[in-house]
Every structure is written in structure tokens, then in C-alpha cells.
Specification:
By secondary structure, the protein is an alpha/beta fold. The chain is about 40% helix and about 20% strand.
Length: about 350
């Protein structure tokens, strides 16, 4: 095992939507399947549950319907270790997405349904007490997917981020830009909101494509690695960001993926690319983000933090469902040992 510092138990507010995931069996298409397996997920659920498993207190800040669906979602996330004390109960709907697993040349496919009508995306301006939340947490996590939903949600997100920052808390922002959510002229629409979040953030998940497309930063470099090493230090300097981290992914013809992780903290720290088989890709980016956050909150060395995060992401690809389920012990073992036989 690798020695690492002990973890201080911090309280992290996770702001984001809880969605119902409905998945076809195996590799079936929706047009083939006669049954669906449901669970509840979302970026906030994924990151928060992983941090709870690592020993932090994770407070979910969201709105869920005041009906049996909302009850089921609350019960599900509670079992993952998330506190639901800050969950508002209002409205009647929960956003859903349907997942078809890809195989070989056919990519996986996610189809959203009813998302804009969900309790989270229609929560009124009085739903959250930003100042009260800010006083009880050390860190707050926000996601660019949430930022893309609508003006009401953007107002909630920015208000809470400002309140936490004013109280001296740390802000984590995962750029997670999704073109389909922002619509036509999405980059131009998103830019001012991203710029404000970056100016508030201490820890950011992003890559060179975010800098080029969202922030409009110019580069004459053509390779991804060269663009990354040129632009990320500029982003960190411009917005006074302490840590920027992310991954580069390659999808191979044999249905394996190759992942390289990086962390910028005054200088770059890279992990050698790792190649692995994929069982379920959804949520692996959240596993990487949770590893980076945990490393920073726990005082890990930067090179250790990014290696831990990549191992967490790799293991997340082996587990059914969005939510990272690996313990810190599992991840440390994956960092230090080759493929294992049955653990007895």
C-alpha cells in the first residue's frame, strides 16, 4: 500500500439534480428491450457519494418531488451516504434518462425525458437558504451541466457559490460542457456564466477544449497535449484558480479505453496512460473528479492526487451504474498492483 496523509473530515455541499436512470438489459436497444432497470443518479450524487465513502460529510442540495418518486430518490441517495437534510421537497416530477449501452462500433446512447419540468429545474427563488447553507459547509461542488439547465437554476447555482465563497469556503467547478443542453450559439451563451464560476472556483475540472471553445482562448498549437500545456496555465492565472485537472480519453477498436490524467498546480503533473476494459462508462468522469477533490481536501501531493483520481476513474468503468462504489482502499490497491485474482 502507498502511505498518504490522514483525511480531515470536511463538509461538502453538492448542488445538482437527481435523475432517474432507466437502463436496458445488457446491450439491448430501447426498441428491443421489454424491461428497464431503474436507479437514481446525477453528477452531484456521484461525486457526493464518492466523497462520503472517502470519509467526508456530503450534503446534497437539490429539490425532489413531494411524492413516492421523491421518497424513493431520497432513500436511494441516503443509502449511498449522502445527507438529505438540505433536500427541498416540492413539485411532482423527476428528470429521467434512458441508457442504452454501446458495443464495438455502436456508441452508448442517453435519451433525456422531462428534465426541464423536474422539481429541481422549476424550484422557486425561495427554495434554498444560501447563507444558511454556506455557514454549515467547508466546500461546495457545482457542475456545468447544472449551469446549462435554465436561468432559474443558474441563479440558484451562482447565488449559492457566491455565498459559500463569501463565507471563506472552497468552490469546486466541473466545466462539463454539454452542447445539446446549451443549444444554438451555446458557447457564446455559456461564456459569461463560466467566467463567473471560474473566477469563484478554487478547484476546476476542465481541458484545453473548454479553454478554446467556451473561453475563446487562441492557440496556434494543433496537438491536444500542446494546447493543454499552453492554455491551462493561462486559465489558472487569469481566474486565480489553485488546481485544474482533467483527462484525455482514447477509445480503442478492441472496446477498451485509454485514459491519461493531469493536474495543474503551478506546474503540470501527468499520469502515464492506462488502458482497461469498459463495463459501464457513465459516471467515470465524476469518479475522477471525486479523486481530485479528495486529494486536495486531504493534503495529498499533486502527483499522488492525480494517480489516485485516475485509478478511481478506471475502477468506475468496471462497476454497473453511474455511482462510484470503490473505497479508498480499493483505489490505492489499484494504483499499486496489477490485475488481481479473487480476493479471499
Amino acid at each position: 500500500m502507498v502511505d498518504r496523509p490522514s483525511c480531515d473530515r470536511l463538509t461538502v455541499a453538492i448542488f445538482g439534480e437527481v435523475m432517474m436512470r432507466l437502463q436496458t438489459p445488457g446491450y439491448e436497444l430501447l426498441t428491443q428491450a421489454s424491461s428497464l432497470n431503474y436507479s437514481f443518479s446525477g453528477t452531484g450524487v456521484n461525486v457526493g457519494s464518492a466523497l462520503a465513502r472517502f470519509g467526508h460529510r456530503a450534503e446534497l442540495v437539490t429539490a425532489l418531488p413531494d411524492n413516492p418518486l421523491g421518497d424513493a430518490a431520497c432513500a436511494f441517495v441516503s443509502k449511498l451516504g449522502l445527507s438529505t437534510n438540505l433536500v427541498a421537497r416540492s413539485g411532482e416530477y423527476i428528470g429521467m434518462y434512458f441508457l442504452e449501452n454501446g458495443f464495438g462500433a455502436r456508441p452508448g446512447r442517453v435519451t433525456y425525458s422531462g428534465r426541464q419540468a423536474s422539481s429541481f429545474n422549476t424550484a422557486s427563488a425561495e427554495t434554498y437558504d444560501y447563507a444558511a447553507i454556506a455557514k454549515r459547509v467547508d466546500v461546495a461542488h457545482f457542475c456545468g451541466i447544472t449551469l446549462a439547465m435554465n436561468d432559474l437554476v443558474r441563479s440558484h447555482l451562482l447565488s449559492l457559490a457566491r455565498a459559500v465563497k463569501a463565507q471563506g469556503g472552497r468552490i469546486v467547478f466541473d466545466c462539463n460542457y454539454r452542447p445539446a443542453h446549451w443549444g444554438e450559439d451555446g458557447y457564446a451563451l455559456a461564456r459569461p456564466f463560466y467566467e463567473e464560476m471560474l473566477s469563484l472556483a478554487d478547484i476546476v475540472m476542465m481541458n484545453e477544449q473548454d479553454a478554446i471553445r467556451i473561453l475563446g482562448m487562441p492557440t496556434e498549437q494543433t496537438g491536444r497535449q500542446e494546447q493543454l500545456t499552453e492554455l491551462i496555465p493561462q486559465v489558472a492565472s487569469r481566474y486565480s484558480i489553485s488546481v485544474i485537472a482533467g483527462t484525455h480519453r482514447t477509445i480503442n477498436v478492441n472496446n477498451t479505453h485509454t485514459l491519461q490524467g493531469y493536474l495543474y498546480k503551478d506546474e503540470f503533473f501527468f499520469v502515464d496512460p492506462v488502458t482497461f476494459a469498459v463495463h459501464d462508462r457513465i459516471g467515470a468522469g465524476d469518479a475522477f473528479a471525486s479523486g481530485i477533490i479528495h486529494g486536495e481536501l486531504s493534503g495529498f501531493e499533486p502527483d499522488y492526487t492525480v494517480r489516485f483520481a485516475v485509478a478511481a476513474a478506471m475502477l468506475a468503468h468496471t462497476i454497473t451504474g453511474d455511482t462510484p462504489m470503490s473505497s479508498e482502499r480499493d483505489i490505492i490497491r489499484a494504483m499499486t498492483e496489477a490485475a488481481l485474482d479473487v480476493e479471499r
